[in-house]
Each structure stands twice: as C-alpha cells, then as structure tokens.
Fold these 4 entries.
Entry 1:
Amino acid sequence: MEGDCYTLALLNLKHIYTKRYSRFKKVRDCSMKKIITGFILSITLFSLLSVAAGDAKRGQLASAACAACHGSDGNSPSPEWPNLAGQSEKYIARQLQEFRKGPDGNRFNPIMYGLVAELSDQQIADLAAYYATLTPKAGEADPDMVALGRAIYLGGNAANGVPACAACHGPAGMGNNQAAFPLLAGQHAQYTQKQLLAYRNGELTSEQAKIMQMIAQRMQEDEIKAVASFIQGLN
Ligand code: HEC
Ligand code: HEC
C-alpha cells in the first residue's frame, strides 16, 4: 500500500504539471504523512530530471534577449559579436557559466556578464541547446591570406611547435561537441583574431583556455591573422 501511495502522488503531480486536473486520482487509504512524503519525493524526482538537459524550445524563447547582437538565426550581423549558430552545446553552456561568474571568473566580459548574471543553470542549458540546433553561415576568406591560413589550420607550424587546428577543431572546423572543442567554421575573422590574442595574453584562464594559450603564444601575428581569415571562409 505504501508504494501505491507514492505512485499516486507521482501521477497526481504529473497531472498538475500537465494541467489535466480531471485525471486527478482520489487518494484513498493513504495517511496524510504518506501523501505529503510522496509529493515531496515526486517533486525532487521531477526537478532532478528537468535540469538534466537543455530544452531548445524554451531556449528559443529566451534567445529574444540575444538576437540583437548574435542574430535572429544565430549568425551575428557584426564582426565583433561571435556567431553562435551550430556551436557545440557543451561549449556554449560552459562559456555562459564563465561569463556568469563575473570579474572573478575565467572569462570576464562586461556586456555578457550583465546579460547572464541572473540566468539559472537550466536557462543556460536551454539557450545552449537552442543555438546548437541552428545552421552556421560561412563568410569569405581574404584570398591573399588563404595559403598561409590553410597551411596553419591543417598542418600547424612544426618549427614553432604550433599544432594543426584541425586536430581538435576538425578538418572542416565543425568542432567536437562531446569534447567541447568549439565549432570555428564561418566565425567572424575579427572575433577569432581577438580571441587568439586574448588567449595569448592570458586573459582567458579556464583549464580549457590554457590549451589555447599555449598554442596562441607560439603563433606569429601574421599566422593569427591568416588563420582567422581562413576560418571565416570555412564551411
Ligand atoms: C549587446 C550585445 C550582446 C547581447 C545582447 C548578447 N551578447 Fe553574447 N556576446 C557579445 C559579445 C561582444 C561577445 C564576445 C565576448 C568576448 O569577447 O569575450 C559575446 C559572446 C558570447 C558567447 C561566447 C561565444 C564563443 O564563441 O565563445 C556566447 C555563448 C554568448 N555570447 C551567448 C549569448 C546569449 C545566450 C545571449 C542572450 C542571453 C547573448 N549572448 C546576448 C555580445 C552580446
Ligand atoms: C589540443 C586541442 C586544440 C588544438 C590543437 C587547437 N584548439 Fe582551439 N580550442 C581548443 C579548446 C579546448 C578550446 C576552448 C577553450 C575555452 O574553453 O576557452 C578552443 C578554442 C578556440 C577558439 C575560441 C573559439 C570561440 O568561439 O571563442 C579559437 C578561435 C581557437 N580555438 C582557434 C584555434 C586555432 C586557430 C588553432 C590552431 C592554430 C587551434 N585552435 C588549435 C582546443 C584546441
């Protein structure tokens, strides 16, 4: 009988969530204590299940606050604002968590801090899930820089210990969501260049950012420029 009381509480909670009050089951032979315990257990279970994954639909609603800068389709209209379309869900979620930490975190940006300071983990997961579903648009590479950019991207620069970007970001720049290696394909060259310089200068300090710091510190100015331009043309 005890188990039945808990099952009923769970079912009833589901009817409350889905607003199907007519399906509400009468609770007979259950003490008030068991009914209340059942509800509490059910609510805990529901909340555990609901923070597990992002919901792209909810993320789409929340993205209204982001569209002015990151574009209504996740492809931003200005080279200072990164494209988010198709970006690794894990990578986005992690960056938003870093922004949320503010000046003491590993990635401080006053604009993004103001926008995400009040977001919950669930809202962050929803936004990340939504942007990951969108389609990235490619830009164009500067023809004068393509040869050097491609050489660095696909082969690195062995003389200075620069590894091939393709090894982690993929030959077509699609990234790797499981590993949270970001998608780079089509990203604005101006933003990519700024990021590489920020890694090099130690402005980004997470464990993952330190991988990029080691790489960017071995790169020459013209290599950074050329690879950023090549990445903008990748699709
Ligand atoms: C006023 C413009 C603006 C708005 C609005 C805005 N962002 Fe940003 N966003 C930026 C800028 C600028 C950066 C680059 C920050 C940096 O250089 O570190 C950025 C960076 C990001 C990044 C990191 C991307 C990457 O490739 O590393 C993510 C993720 C992001 N924004 C998500 C959002 C979300 C989600 C919202 C809405 C809640 C939002 N942004 C609203 C300007 C904006
Ligand atoms: C060993 C794996 C690895 C290699 C090789 C690598 N990267 Fe990365 N890269 C990462 C990781 C991990 C991150 C995420 C760092 C973070 O969270 O800040 C990243 C982030 C980036 C970003 C920031 C993206 C954004 O949206 O802000 C750029 C740009 C980038 N890498 C460019 C390059 C280039 C150019 C090369 C080649 C010269 C390269 N990477 C080689 C692992 C790698």
Entry 2:
Amino acid sequence: VGRRILCLAIAAGIAASVAEGAPEPFDWSGRLAGYQRPARIPFPSDNGWSEARETLGRTLYFDPRLSQSATVSCATCHNPALSWGDGLPRAVGHAMKTLRRRSPTVLNLAWGELFFWDGRAESLEEQALGPITSPDEMNLTGDELLARLRAVGEYRSLFEAAYPDEGITLGTVAKALATFERTLVSAEAPFDRWVKGDETAVSEAAKRGFRLFETKARCASCHSGWRFTDESFHDIGLPGDDVGRAAVLPGIDVMRHAFKTPTLRNVARRAPYMHDGSEKDLEAVVDLYVRGGREKRPSLSDQIEPLDLGKAERRDLIEFLHSLTSEDPIPASPRLPL
Ligand code: HEC
Ligand code: HEC
C-alpha cells in the first residue's frame, strides 16, 4: 500500500508539473537536422543545365515581347525585387485584368513536384507556356510567340547556342525558361547558419518560435523540410468558392479548397499571403491558424485545429519566420536582344 501511495504521489507531481507548463523534452539537433539545405540543384536529364540555357531563359523571362501588349514579362508578376512575387493580393494580367489567384514566388522550384496553387502542371517546362498563352495573362498565341522570337536575329543565335539544332520552338522556349527558374535558389538565411551549428545566428525568440513551429503550433506537419513545404495540398480554412485542387482531382472530397503548401523561405518579404492574398501580414496568418481556420468545412485539414498560443508565443513564431529571410542578390534585367 505504501508503495502505491508513493506512485500516486509521483504521478500527481508529474501531472502538476505538466499543468504548470514545464517544457517537454525537445531534440533540438534532431529536429534541426531535418532542415539541411541540399548541396546542388537537380536538373532533369532531358534538360540539363548549361550556361547558354540559363542565359537564354533569363533573357526570355525578362522580355515583355512574350506578351501581346509587349508590356508584361514573367518578371512583372514574379519580380526579383519582391522575392519573385508581385506584392499584390491577386495578380493583374493582360489589359489590367485582376486574376483570381495571387502570384506565388518562383524561388526554389527546382525541387518542386507539382506546380500552380492547384498542382495542375507536372513540370516547370509544362508550366512555362501557360501564362504566355493565357488570354488573361500574356495573351499571345504559340504561333505569334514563335514568329516574334524568330524575327529577332540575336534570339536565333541564343537558341542555337542553348539547344543546338532544335530551333526556336515552344519546347525550347519552355525548356530555357524552366532552366533559368531552377537556378533561382534562396541564399543562406540566419536559420541555415543555426542549422549548421552557429548558436548566435538567430535570436532566443526565434529559437523558441522554431520549437513552437515543430510542436504545439503544428506548422511543421505541412511546412516541412528545408523549403518548408510538404509539396502537398490542404484546406486550411480560407473562405471562398475557389475549390483549388478539387478542380484537378474532382471527386476527392478532401481536395476541395485545398491549395499547395507554399514555401516559407523569405516569406516575410512576400505579403500579402495565401492563394487569394487574403491575409495582409504574418500576424494575420498566425491569427488564422490560432483560430483553426475561418471556414470549418468537411474538407478542412485534420491538422488545422484551434491553437493555444499566447501573445508572446505568437511573436516568437513570427520571429522564427523572419529568420528564414536571406539576402539574395537581385539579378539585373538583361539587355533585350535585337
Ligand atoms: C499576370 C501575372 C503573371 C505573369 C505575367 C506570369 N505569371 Fe506565373 N503565375 C501567376 C499566378 C497568378 C500564378 C498562380 C496561378 C494558379 O495557381 O492558378 C502563377 C504561377 C506560376 C508558377 C507556379 C509556381 C508554383 O509554386 O507552383 C510558375 C513556375 C510561374 N508562374 C512562372 C511564370 C513564368 C515562367 C512566366 C512567364 C512566361 C509567368 N509565370 C508569368 C502570375 C503570373
Ligand atoms: C494542414 C497543413 C498546414 C499547417 C498545419 C500549416 N500550414 Fe501554413 N499553409 C498551408 C497551406 C496549404 C497554405 C496555402 C493555403 C492557401 O493559400 O489556401 C499555407 C500558407 C501559409 C503561409 C502563407 C505563405 C504564402 O506565401 O502565402 C504562411 C506564412 C504559413 N502558412 C505559415 C504557417 C504557420 C506559421 C503554421 C503553424 C501555425 C502553419 N502555416 C501551419 C498548410 C499548412
């Protein structure tokens, strides 16, 4: 009997210390190890990297002649000075038409698996021609695009250097754009220096924020790995009639209102947030998660539930998100070929 009482006393003691918020053990180095940056950029075997391909892709990316009006380039909506987004809640395309979704960043997509907010493109090559020929975006037909490029002498030599004997085709345009995009990788951030062992690289608040991100706030269940995305699709409870991934995979109920988990690299530079630009800053994003989403539909992810995070904890989480910001060089727009 004596022993049983002792056990109960110990059990009560443990319960009391948990109730008082004593920290549970946390494997810092094990958790940080899940965020190591890869050593090199992967390129597909049928479109390997070469300097000539990167140069051609960069030139096309910044060339407004890829649009009907000759005023819109890829960089208009994926602007290097705005962390490769456009700073708008929703993109503005051809003839100033507001599109239904926000321009995502094109950073770190070499590791991407499916593209667009709803994952409807399976490669960067497949994605690249979409905006050019979309009437709402750049509004140029494939034939017009090729006629324009073939009329430019310097483009003929740039294509020949990049894809010898393949000519100026929709295929080589897409491959060059994809090659350039694969080279866009966010530089080392304070968080990466911490992962590598420099304990002074981030603040104590950011460290507490990382711990919350991994545990109580549940963020890492979707924002995982060094790019902070599971490359999957979730309904996190944003209202609206855009069904997201369900338009690509009809009949799968959990895919209704599900959108691709965005990278959190340099996220502090890319407000406003979400596929619809509905959250104006990181405070608003964290509030949304604390509430467990705003629209509680059957498709709502089971990882989204109200969170018990105090004010200081929310600040720590945001401080952690800031530690993912790197000082990336902003490439100068290339001189356009004549
Ligand atoms: C008018 C603005 C606009 C222009 C111009 C534009 N985009 Fe986009 N881009 C968007 C929007 C909006 C989306 C998201 C659309 C969606 O998910 O339905 C997007 C999505 C993408 C994605 C997918 C990113 C991801 O994480 O899945 C890539 C890659 C991309 N664009 C590259 C390009 C390239 C290359 C060009 C030039 C040929 C270009 N874009 C021109 C607005 C634009
Ligand atoms: C169930 C998976 C899931 C969980 C858990 C989750 N996220 Fe997200 N996150 C997403 C998805 C999906 C989006 C995009 C949703 C959309 O646009 O409709 C997103 C968007 C974001 C964005 C906006 C990024 C941008 O470029 O628009 C931020 C910031 C963010 N999440 C941070 C967090 C934080 C912090 C937590 C933890 C409190 C968290 N997320 C938990 C899946 C998740």
Entry 3:
Amino acid sequence: MMDNIFTQSRRRTGWGLSVVLVVWGVWLFTPGLPVLWAPRAKAEVRAAGKTLFEHEWAPHDPLAHGDGLGPVFNAKACVSCHFQGGVGGGGGNDHNVLAFEALPTKKRPELESGLIHKFAVTNRFLEDSSSLRKFFPIVPGGVRIEGGCQILTRDFDPIHTKSINSTALFGAGWIDRVSGKTIVHEYRKRALAQLPRDFDPKSRGALPGRPRVLPDGRMGKFGWKAQFATLEEFVAAACANEIGLGNPRMDQAQPKTQWKYPKVQPDLDATQFRALVAFVDTLSRPEETLPTDTRHRQHAERGKDVFRTVGCAACHTPDIGGVSGVYSDFLLHRLDDPEHRSSGYREVETPQVPLPEDWPLEEEWKTPPLWGVADSAPYFHDGSCTTLEAAIQRHHGDAHDVTTAYAALSADDQHAVIAFLKTLKAPAGADPAPREAKSEIALGR
Ligand code: HEC
Ligand code: HEC
C-alpha cells in the first residue's frame, strides 16, 4: 500500500516527537556529566594568582588599578583568612566576618544582605550596627484590631547578624565542576528513597534537605548558605567585600554609612582577576591520609564504615558527580531545633513580608564538604565548635535520628569515627602559608 506525502510527514513528525520525548525523559532522570579532568592552569598564570592571593594590599597599592585596599575591608590579604594547612586553607575565629541580613518590611520590601566591615581606610567610613540601623530601623509594634479583638504586635527588628568562619578552599575547582544537575539528581534519589509508604512529613528523621536554586535557576554550591553557583563569582565577591578590591565582575563594597565614597576604577584588571581565579581553582584537593601503623589504620578504616552505617554519609555524601571523597550533598539542612536552644537555636521572628522561597531560612546551612576537615577547625558556620566531637554533638533537627544513633554507639566506635575524620587532611603539597598570615596581622583602625 502506498503512503501519500501527507501521512509520511505526519508519521515522521510523530517519530520525531517520541524521540525528543524519550531523550528529554532520559535527560531529566540522569545525573549531569561527571567531572573527568582535574582543574588546570598555566604555571605562570597560577604563580601570578598566588602572588595576588598572598599580597598584603594597601590604600593606593601599586598593584591596583583603582584605589587599592578599601574603602571598607575585613583584612588586607586573602591568605590572612585562608591559611590553615597551607595557602588556601581555613582560618580561626579571629578572622570571622560579621554578615547581616536585613529582612524585608512593608516599607522596604526588598531583602538586603552584606557584611559589617571591621576596618575602613578612614574613620568616616567605619561601619557598625548603629550605622546600619539608619538604613534599617526597627519597626515599632502596636495594637491591631482584628475581628473586634485588640492584637498586640511586637517591635520588629529587620537586622539579623551572624559571625561566619572562613572555609578551606582546597579542591574548590573540583566542586566548581560538579554539575548542578547531578546534585539535584542525587537529592531526588534520596528524597524518594526516604519516603516510606507511611511517610509522616512531621517526622524529623525523614527530611532530605533542599537544594538552593538561585533566582536565575542555577544551583548554589559555594558559601555556607550555598549563595554562589560558581567559584569565579565567589572570588569576585571575596575581592570586593573582604579586601575592597573592585574587579571586572563586581564593584568594591561601598561603606554603609552616611558618607558616600566616589566611584573609582576597578582595582583588578581582567588578567589579574583571571589569574586569581585560576589560582583558587587549581588549589589541590584534600587527601584521605591513613595512619601508617596497622592498629591505628584499622581503627580509622572501621570509623569510615561506621560513618556510613550510622547515617552521616546521608548528608556528607562521600562521592558526587565524579568527585570522590568530598563528603557533601551541597544541600541546605536545618540542624537546629527548639529543644536545643543552648546549641544556638533562636526563636526567629516572623518576617513582616514573606521571604522569597529560594532564600535560606535563618537556621538553614549547606552541608560543608568534610574533605580536609582535620585541618580546618574550628567547626560549623560560626566556628563555635572547637573539636570534631563538639561538631557532631551539635547536629539536631534534620540529623536528629543520625545523632541519636551515633550517641548509642560504643565509645570505641565513636572514637573510630573521629579517627576517620582525622584522616581527611589538607593536601600535603599545599604551599606553606607566610608566617605573618598565621599570627594576626596588625590591622590598624
Ligand atoms: C576576613 C577574612 C577573609 C578574607 C580576607 C577572605 N576570605 Fe574568603 N572566606 C571568608 C569567609 C568567612 C568565608 C565563608 C563565607 C560564606 O560562606 O558565607 C570565605 C569563603 C571563601 C570562598 C568560598 C569557599 C566555598 O567552598 O564555599 C572562596 C572561594 C573564598 N573565600 C576566596 C577568597 C579570596 C580569593 C580572597 C581574597 C580576595 C578571600 N577569600 C579573602 C573569609 C575571608
Ligand atoms: C542532615 C544532614 C547531616 C547529617 C546526617 C550529618 N551532618 Fe554533619 N553537617 C551537616 C551540616 C548542614 C553541617 C553544617 C552546619 C552549620 O554550619 O551550621 C554539618 C557540619 C559537620 C561538621 C563540621 C564541618 C565544618 O567544616 O565545620 C562535621 C565534622 C560533621 N558535620 C560531621 C558529621 C558526622 C560525623 C555525622 C554523623 C554522625 C554527620 N555530620 C551527620 C549536615 C549533616
């Protein structure tokens, strides 16, 4: 029998459509491409980047194309806050930065966030909570009449501040290459696996966390709140906010005071900025280093098994997207709950205006990668836990069931988990940090 041209083309379209649908379906339910190659950069580019990372910036610095350090800043060098275990590591609590969020109010519906800088090039530009208050005043409470009843509303303070500890940057280039699709894929897999038939959404043990999808649809991976999708963007923000270095991707931070600072040329040109990003991108990844003597090695190896069986690996996913030994799912979780107020839980005021859905709640934090954790104390976003034991004890909320199971382990098994965590070291080949970075650099006001 003969097909006419019309039915042929219809048949072809039908085929085409099914192929597209099948491909789309397969694409939707498969992870993204794994990371296949290590980050690389030319030796001279990396060396130029290292110089910029270690450089102690000054106002009108000869290396800068704009005004150099400031006008507001938290330290004079990247390495001042990133030095533990070598150049690029984490920092101690004396280098914590003070971050603020100004929640939206009826009069000011946009949410704002930033840093309250420790230092400024002149006193006029010095920031503190009271200079911030001028922009974000307390909204006085009052009496509201609702259904004939008088309802008292409390004063609403839109400003929330948090002290934030610096993270280690080793292996950041690998994390940069993990596709957002893979993270969402792993999340979906786990969410499905964790939903038993008698799923009770109120039960705390079954919460799989959530990915941070940024307003433009990309996945957030960097920062304690997963607030940046790429390493390059984080480096741009670190230059602008921590040291006051304007760059091709971001203007330098403006003082949050009544005084205006004039607009100047970016401090870093495109070549310098690319070199700095390349340096951070190619910092070696941390290494799992087992003790050499048999008894200690076996103890740590058992700890690695217990880490999985007790449930730590549910959030601290050992391998993701072809990057092995990273120990993070890159999702937001809530580890605080009302029963553990001493652990930092704070009753959060209801915002006057609903927050955007992608915005993390005050108590939501990204699972930090545990690679290199042996060399990155203190722990948690605020650096409040000085030891690994204390860090584990502070897991409540989403980790409630895992923490309970951990507490029920024998002391020997608990020690084995700690022994395993202590094998997660900064890369042995990291460049030694300059001595002055380790001791507090004198930062005059
Ligand atoms: C005053 C201390 C300080 C200085 C100086 C500083 N940082 Fe950081 N850095 C931090 C803190 C704190 C964090 C964690 C911030 C967060 O997650 O919100 C961080 C996080 C980062 C991250 C994200 C890492 C991750 O995996 O999430 C990168 C990248 C980074 N810094 C690069 C730099 C670079 C490059 C410089 C120099 C231009 C620099 N930092 C200077 C304190 C500092
Ligand atoms: C529900 C997810 C979840 C589970 C389960 C979980 N963690 Fe965590 N872990 C997190 C999050 C989120 C943080 C960061 C919290 C913060 O900074 O406020 C964290 C932080 C840590 C830290 C501190 C890391 C750093 O760089 O500051 C260590 C160590 C740690 N976890 C170990 C463990 C161990 C060991 C277990 C098992 C006993 C475990 N975690 C179970 C989500 C989880």
Entry 4:
Amino acid sequence: MISIHPARIAIEACGLVAVLASVAIAQVPRDVVDIDYDKHKFISLEGCKKCHIEPGTYANTDVTDRVYLTEWKTWSEQDKHSEAYLVLSDERGRRMGELLRKDVKAESTGCIQCHTPNAIRTRWDANCLQNAAIKEDCLSTGVDCQACHGPAADWVGPHQLGDWWKKTARQKADLGFRPVHDPLFRAEMCLSCHVGNPSENKVITHEMYAAGHPPLSGFELESFADKMPRHWRQSYEKPKATPTYERTRNMLVANVVSLRFALELASADVAANQDGQHWPELARLECYACHHDLRLPSWRQSRSTAGRVGRPQLNLGCEPLVRVAARVVLDEVGKQAADALLARVQTEIFAENVFGSPQAISRLAPVVRQWCLDLEAKLLATPFTTAKIVDVLDEVYQAADQQLKDYDTARQLTGAIVIICDELALVDTTRATPQRVADRLGKLRTGFNLHVDMKARVEETLKQSLQRRAGFKPEVFARLISSLEKYPRD
Ligand code: HEC
Ligand code: HEC
Ligand code: HEC
Ligand code: HEC
Ligand code: HEC
C-alpha cells in the first residue's frame, strides 16, 4: 500500500507538482569496488552495535538527518539477513548437509560465501583471530553489516567523524567501504548473493537445489529492499536533503546487472566443466521447463517461443525488464540491436545443444557483458523525468502482456510496477492513478510474497510459494495487468 509521504506534502507545498527531479548520476569509477580482503579485514560486529542501535547523543542533530543510527535494531529484529548463518544449522540446512554429504559451514562447500561471508577466517582481523571471547561473534552474524558495507577494520574509526560523509566513493573504498549508495554497485552487491557471482565464489548449483535449497529467483532489487526492510532513507525521505527520484531507474539498472550476472554464471559453468562431467548446470535453466506436470490446456504450448520447442531456456526473470530499459533509453538503432541480442540469447544457446551449448555461451557472454555495461551507463546518464517514468510504466504493461510469463518473471514485473507507482505517487497529487493501481496490485503482491515476515519459517513459506508457482496461471496474470489503469498523459 502506498502511504502519503511527508516528502510529497513538501513537494506540493513548493508547487512542484508532477515533475520528478531526477538527475543524471555521476558514476563511481568501476575499479573502486573490488574489495581486497587481504588488505581490509572484518572486525567483530559488536563494534557496530554500540553506535547503530539508537541515536543517543546524536538524536536530533544533522547526523540523524543523514542516518537513522537504529540500523542494528532493524537488522536484528526484522531483517532475515541476520539469521542467514543460523539457518545453516536449522532443520533444512542440516538435511541439506546430509544429502550433499558435506559440512555446510565449510568454506569449500560454498554456502557461507552467501550466508555469512565474514565466517571466512582468512578475512578476520587479529582481534577476531586471537580473542577467544569474541570469536563466536565474528563467526555467527549471518549476512551482517560488513557483508554489505565492506570489511570495517580500516574505516570503522574514520567513518564516525564529521567529514566522512563528504568523502568521495573512491576515498571511502580505499579503506574497504563498499559504495552502496551508488545504484550500480548496490545492485552488484545484492545480486552477488541473490543471483550469484562466480568471482566471489557465490554460486548456487542444482545439487544444492535438489538437496532442498529454496529457488533463488524473481529478485527485483528495489521492492526486495523495501521487503528487507530498508534501514536507510531515500533522499526524498530525508530532512534537509535535496530530493531526487531514482527508484524506477535503479530498478531497471538492477535488472540489467541481473542479466550480466546470469551470463557470467553460465560462462563460469563452462569454465568449471573442463573435465566434461559437469554439463549442463541445471541451476542456470528455467526450473519449470523440467519441473512441471503435463496438462491440457497447456499455456506452454500456446506461448510463442523464440527458440525451438521442447528445449529449456536460461532462467532469466529479468529479461522483460531489460527490454524495457533498452526501449526507454536507447535510440531506434539501439532498440533494434537490443531485440536482436536478446533474441540471440534466447535462441542461439539452445539451438546448438538441447541443454545449452558451452561454445555459444562462451561466444555470447562477452558480447552481452559489454552491452549490459553500456546500457547501465546509459541508464545512469539519462534523467528520469515524470514523463520518462510513465514511459517505463507503459512499457512494463506491454511486456507483461506480450508474452506469457512464468511465475518468477511475473513476480519481477509486479515488483517493478509497485516501485514505479510508489514513485509516481510522490508527485501525483491530483490524480489517484498510482494509488488505484497499487490497490489492485495489493492481492498480487501477497500472492508473490513481496512482504517478508521474519518469523515465518522457510518450511511454511516454501511450501506455499512452491504451490503458487505450480498453480500459476500466466493468462490470469496477463489479464490482470492489461486491466490496470494507464497513467494519463497531459
Ligand atoms: C563510535 C560509533 C560508531 C561505531 C562503532 C560504528 N559507527 Fe557507523 N556511523 C556512526 C556515525 C555517527 C555515523 C554517521 C556519520 C555522519 O554522517 O556524520 C555512521 C555512519 C555509518 C554508515 C553510513 C556511512 C556512509 O558513508 O554512508 C555506515 C554504512 C555505517 N556507519 C556502518 C557501520 C558499521 C558496519 C559499523 C561496524 C563495523 C559501524 N558503522 C560502527 C557511528 C559509529
Ligand atoms: C549464491 C548464494 C547462495 C548460496 C551459494 C547458498 N545460498 Fe542459501 N540462500 C541464499 C539466498 C539469497 C536465500 C534466500 C532466498 C529467498 O528467499 O529469496 C537462501 C536461503 C537459504 C535457506 C532458507 C533460509 C530460511 O529462511 O529458512 C537455507 C536453509 C539455505 N539457504 C541453506 C544453504 C546451504 C546449506 C547452502 C550450501 C549448500 C546454501 N544455502 C548456498 C543464497 C545462497
Ligand atoms: C543486505 C545488505 C545490508 C546489510 C546487511 C546492512 N546494510 Fe546498511 N545499507 C545497505 C544499503 C544498500 C544501504 C544504502 C542504500 C542507499 O544509499 O541507497 C545501506 C545504508 C546504510 C546506512 C546509511 C543510511 C542512509 O540513510 O544513508 C547506514 C548507517 C547503514 N546502512 C548501517 C548498517 C549497519 C549498522 C548494519 C548492520 C546492523 C547494516 N547497515 C547492514 C545494505 C545493507
Ligand atoms: C552476502 C550475501 C547477500 C547479500 C549481499 C544480500 N543478500 Fe539478501 N539474502 C541473503 C541470504 C543468505 C538470505 C536468506 C536469509 C534467511 O532466510 O535466513 C537473504 C534474504 C533476503 C530477503 C528475504 C527473502 C525472503 O523472501 O525471505 C530479502 C528481501 C533480501 N535478502 C534482500 C536483499 C537486498 C535488497 C540486498 C541488497 C541491498 C541483499 N538482499 C543483499 C544473502 C544476501
Ligand atoms: C533440464 C531439466 C531440469 C531443470 C532445468 C531443473 N531441474 Fe531440478 N531436477 C531435474 C532432475 C532430472 C532431477 C532429479 C529428479 C528426481 O530426483 O526425481 C531434479 C531434481 C530436483 C529437485 C529434487 C527433487 C524434487 O522434485 O523435489 C529439486 C528441488 C529441483 N530439482 C529443483 C530445481 C530448481 C530450483 C531448478 C531451477 C533453478 C531446477 N531444478 C532446474 C531436472 C531439472
């Protein structure tokens, strides 16, 4: 549900109705992100708690205008990331270990890279290594502050001081602080675990799924950030900050990064198959290509597949939104090139081999990578005005309408519409369209589990979400989307 935000009232008061202030974003240079874990180390997390649990003496100062200083509370009480290490030893985690015949907490098994990167001992500072009293603390914090913000040994001191927030992303990154304010690097950070990143050894396999890992898919970053929930404010939610509106843009950026990561994972599978015994990696394919019951009528038979019938596809819930991104920021030639490239990804890989051709993947991956990087840069350089955001909404409606979609794609599209409508609602003081769309999406939102209940155990939620996946009716979804109100253009 969209709430009427104070920022909206402020905008109204200023007479700025219906113009979203969105600027091109200065890009942080690419080479700042790779964190050198030999150089920068993790510290015990207790070091964050003492200041980030409540504002204390900072209350009502310019510091709390910038940050809440209650992040610890949000994370430990509402955010599932704080349990990511614990779940490795709960019922499902233990059973997975038994089926895999591996210790799920050993680095070589590949779970902790995503579930608690700070458990990797070679990344600990001397205090964690030597001080027995805090060892457990260093180990067991799940996806903690430093998993996202970077190993803190070198920045925990300077970052509390007055002029830290004026430093450039590069100056912060030199101390191991990841520039998560930047939409591109934020996307790379979240997606490194929610899609996977082979260069950080974060790779999910079909073996892990078959042992019981819940499916990782349908990750629309912006709506998932709300679901997390956010412990930070957007610029338009902060007092005294100049509000900029960029969630629609950032949502698109993250989908392009998703496509780039998906192809990088597929190419890492090719590299991992030197012995010829590890192909295909089924985790990269659309799960329900194989895991569905045969039935009549079959929506799969009525869809117009770009490729040959009877062959799986890459698991790319992001693809329609990547297409939308290309359509709203590229010129005619660029749009045609985008359609051609995305069609190649759909057809070429599976034309040469039923389960995907390693050669075709190796050929396409670098091309897709460069194309994605260019599109990401173009998105960041384009101002997203109200008119542009309305274009995005129209394109998303069309994307949802044109092809029958699987559950995960539909979930991603729904997340996108929610974010766009939230953003439009900030300036739409006279027309209630975004609110009405959001109300209609309400049910769908629940259906797609876009809310998180930290207390809900995976055993219940997974059962339900698998039932929803199995019973998903794309034609009903398409009908619902096509019945949504269009945003009026002046
Ligand atoms: C002694 C108090 C203190 C400790 C300890 C501390 N912080 Fe902070 N932190 C602050 C204050 C104060 C700010 C706000 C700085 C400002 O904007 O002036 C801040 C800001 C931040 C920011 C936002 C900085 C930016 O550039 O956007 C992050 C992220 C952060 N802290 C994470 C952490 C993490 C992770 C830890 C533990 C490893 C930690 N902090 C430990 C006091 C502390
Ligand atoms: C590429 C990153 C990645 C890898 C590798 C990975 N996981 Fe996960 N895991 C996730 C994410 C992300 C989720 C949350 C999925 C969601 O709900 O969208 C998750 C969820 C889970 C859950 C359910 C948590 C709950 O809420 O109860 C369990 C259990 C789990 N993982 C265990 C494992 C084990 C055991 C391994 C290793 C064999 C492993 N994971 C490997 C990223 C990963
Ligand atoms: C799952 C990843 C993740 C975890 C875990 C995480 N953060 Fe963050 N945090 C972010 C992102 C992403 C942002 C900023 C996004 C932006 O600026 O748009 C952020 C922003 C912040 C900010 C700046 C707030 C602002 O309004 O600019 C502070 C302070 C902070 N985090 C502290 C913490 C602390 C302390 C912890 C641990 C208790 C923590 N974070 C855990 C991802 C994370
Ligand atoms: C270091 C790996 C890692 C990073 C980085 C990461 N996540 Fe996660 N995320 C996980 C794991 C593991 C889980 C499962 C935790 C559990 O269920 O106990 C998870 C769970 C979640 C959930 C709960 C999903 C559900 O349905 O239960 C949300 C929402 C989420 N992450 C959003 C984000 C966002 C947004 C970002 C970036 C700001 C992010 N994550 C970054 C690993 C990560
Ligand atoms: C190319 C076909 C194919 C694809 C694609 C595929 N799988 Fe499987 N999967 C299989 C086969 C074959 C088995 C073994 C069947 C058995 O155990 O009876 C299996 C077993 C499983 C199992 C354990 C058995 C069960 O039904 O519970 C799970 C869970 C699973 N896969 C999840 C996934 C997920 C999640 C994806 C997508 C990321 C996926 N699979 C993609 C073919 C596939």
